[in-house]
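Hi there, hope your week has been kind to you so far. For a while now I've been wondering how a particular protein folds. I'm sending you its amino acid sequence along with the backbone structure tokens. Could you read through the record and tell me how the tokens relate to the sequence? Take your time with it, there's no hurry, and the full record follows here.
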Amino acid sequence: MRRGGWAQNLDVLRAKSWEGIISARDLVRLGVPERTVYRRTQEDGPWTLLYPATLMLTKGTPTLRQWEIAALVHAGPGAMLTGLGAARHHGLRRGGEPEFDHVLISIERRALSIGRARVERTTRLPRAMERAGLPVAPLARCIIDHVRRLKDQEQIAAVVTEAIQRGMVLEETLWAELERSTRKGTAAPRRVLEATRAGVLSPAEYTARGFWESYDDLPPIEWNIDVYTEDGEFVATVDGLCRELGFVWEIDSVENHFATPQQVRETLARQRRLRALGLHVLGTRPAQRRDDPEGLHEDILANLAIAAALPAPRALYGPGPAVRQAG
């Protein structure tokens, strides 16, 4: 038999919860005996224990949002989301699905990481921003907190370049956040940011840049350069440009250039416009760098020789989107 006033009106408990998530301490404050709280989370009970002293007022599997809320409740007052999950609330798309809920708390507080909740105590707790009703760290902090835990530089580049390319955050803001953060895990993000400073704006371009720089016999190349006619009409932003030779290297991924007939037509039309200016264009697939790097190297050398033998292109060049944004 139910006992106590709380049992007569469970809606009060739900109203005091955060979308069905509540701490055991708050339930006790609302009049639910502590023993009853945990008894109701047992296998045959109506509630679900998510973390120690943090529970869901229903039985079953919580949603990803409820897991995030549970991590915040577990971490306590002043906690905020950071990392990939929080970056999702800012609108970031790349990076896959978050494997855990990364939470920041002040260095003075005490809370342990457990299950999906990764609790990080910090002396640099930022002012939280509200996104979708949840407290989250600023985007630059979210990105740096995420990428300094990664080892795969292409995964890091995917997250960093999306945020910069879409104008979600300035490159210099990411640099400043990286310089303020702990040194652990910052070497790989630093290399990626150095590449974005050079104009790289996608993970494929990041890998391509590393490939190019691994060969001593390849000339200097610039990334994401705007090409114009001599009359100043914009033609295209090219992936890689060897300016002195009039050589263009295009990284033609299947998903962006050959997934649909329309993309194929646009890619071919773009190459025709560039060749009409006297530029020599080499388009390659990202997989070629992985499957046949030496063959790709030979193709590049051969096409550089062709470009060198051609008359100077009738083109003007601009700084490209990355430099324009930084300026």
About this structure: The chain has three domains: 5-62, 79-197, 203-323. Residues 293-309 form the longest helix (17 residues). Residues 322-327 have pLDDT under 50 and may be disordered. The CA atoms of residues 227 and 317 lie 5 Å apart.
